[in-house]
Amino acid sequence: MAKRDAPEINAGSMADIAFLLLVFFLVTTTMDSDMGMMRKLPPTLPPDMPKPPPIKDRNVFVVLANSNDQLLVEGELMDISQLKEAAKEFIENPMNVETLPEKKPTEIPLFGTRQVSKQVISLQNDNGTSYELYIQVQNELAAAYNELRDQLARDEFGVSYQDLIDKKEKAKIKAIKRVFPQRISEAEPKDVGN
């Protein structure tokens, strides 16, 4: 009996199919790049531009982080867990305390005339400050603004601030941001001290 050879499978087109699948997945796959911190750097001012007027001390909330990962807020040692509430109190100044930021009447669409705080948060880090503390401070300050904005959205529109963002209600979001503008000034790290 004659032995027959097994038929060969033509694998020549397998490489073409694999290549086409690879190209298909590369073209159709999206990469999310929502990583990082949402901060805008200030624009570079021309040298001939006049200096802005000085900011009153009562309008500045000073946050210093030293190389020992200690937080100094308004000249007092503070635990990171207390920073958000202290920042909220400063930003909002609900009782119009004279040592907290001044307020200026501002016409805001959807809200009418509102008292808007002239607050600025000044954040300074030491060269030896850990990245972990730096991120914690950033998160706490951002959370303070977000909680104030969320409360305003719930009071005025009956929904959370995040719902407004999800529904892309730009006019309402813009109005809320004008009531609580996020003003965080970061100086270059230097030796703040221990």
Please describe the topology of this protein.
Elements: H1 12-28, E1 60-65, E2 71-73, E3 76-78, H2 80-92, E4 103-108, E5 112-117, E6 120-125, H3 131-157, H4 161-166, H5 170-179, E7 184-186
Parallel strand pairs: 1-6, 6-7
Antiparallel strand pairs: 1-2, 2-3, 4-5
Helix pairs in contact: 2-3
Short description:
The chain is α/β, with parallel strands linked by helices and 194 residues long. The protein is 38% helix and 17% strand.
Give your account of this protein's structure.
The chain is an alpha/beta fold. It has a domain at 57-186. It is built from five helices and seven strands; from the N terminus they run αβββαβββαααβ. It has helices at 12-28, 80-92, 131-157, 161-166, 170-179, and strands at 60-65, 71-73, 76-78, 103-108, 112-117, 120-125, 184-186. The strands form two sheets. The chain has a five-stranded mixed sheet, with helices on one face. Helix 2 crosses helix 3 (131-157). The protein is elongated. The model has no long low-confidence stretch (mean pLDDT 85).
List keywords for this structure.
194 residues; five-stranded mixed sheet; 7 strands; elongated; alpha/beta; two-stranded antiparallel sheet
Structure classification: alpha/beta
Q: Into which percent range does the helicity of residues fall?
A: 25-40%
Give the SSE string. Answer: HEEEHEEEHHHE
Strand order of the largest sheet: 3-2-1-6-7
Quote the distance from N terminus to C terminus.
Answer: 95 Å
Question: Tell me, what's the shape?
Answer: elongated
Radius of gyration: 27 Å
Pick out the low-confidence regions: none
| Major pleated sheet | 5 strands, mixed
